[in-house]
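Exercise 7.
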Amino acid sequence: MSATCCILGLGYIGLPTAAVLARAGHRVIGVDVNAHVVSTVNGGRIHIVEPELDEAVAAAVASGGLTAQLKPAPADVFLIAVPTPFRSGPDGIPQPNIDYVLAAARAIAPVLRPGNLVLLESTSPVGTTEQVARVIAEECGLNSEQVQIAYCPERVLPGRILQELISNDRVIGGLTPAAAEAGQSFYATFCKGDLLTTTARTAELVKLTENSFRDVNIAFANELSLVCDRLGINVRDLIRLANHHPRVNVLQPGCGVGGHCIAVDPWFIAAAAPDCTPLIQTARRVNDGKSRWVIEQVQSRAAALEDQLGRPARIGCLGLAFKPDVDDLRESPALYITTELVVAGLDVLACEPNLSDHPTIKLDSLEKVLEEADLLVFLVAHSPFKHLDLAGRVVFDLCGVTEQT
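Solution. The predicted structure, written as tokens, is:
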């Protein structure tokens, strides 16, 4: 099956998906509202950091399998991969914002034809696929019997996106059984994992459940890190030893939780059922609280160093991305921590090896930070931060990078 595919959103999911589809023999039209992104892709280049993506996009564009433009065009399959942020809500529970998803649905409506397949991949609250169908019906008069509409969330790990788009299992939830089957047939053209069909609502909640599960487990690890700090115990030694139990697998703590999924998706569940989700809400607050604890710890350590040095201490913040070896800053606790330290008036040197610049934070080289900082705060376990000679240095390691051998 070779199809013309129109992908709305050429970000961290849409662009790798476009490259994978083109490699599988589909003709891909990538759509983005950012003219710079469109021109970059049409030039065979990328605007994000992801291993091997530059070669994949260059090859797809050179072969004619991938082009980019500002507006949708007629196609057989439409994939929506746009952001779904959240906004403030009542009782401290953020509310999902699906404005970009609904705008994408309106954008494709004029070019939809009976028999088309519409796939929503954006992480979405339960009921979003139904809202997409309503928008399409209102805009062009085609209902979910005439256009197949399904939800299939991405489940990939940044840094491994190209591999996992192909190898991971997929959950495809159709508004109708026929839509689920149509989605299954399409994903079978490039996916090697199991393709599991269900209803759209179930698929929407599956994605939210996966990331909420991880958030709750990370919150346990982050809470343990606070306990260990209080009791003078190395938390990573503790977890390593505890995980020797055959039925225990404690995750690793960090400086918080970031990324568009794990830091966001639990709120989508909580917003839909606030009275049923005390554990999910508490885990979110524990993980956000870890970042605030880190800020307080750095301020305290900087003050102690100032007393010793007789001058303000220089703080080296190492890593701004939300996870190792990517440039993705979405909901990044490391970025939040660094920003708050700057706002608090500390003398901060920031190093993010996957970015050349940042709009609000001056970036310095790793060499400069190592040379000039009095306190090294490791926030992200980027590869360049491993195996450094830190003898005699004052180090605050939140990600375990200095303990890796």
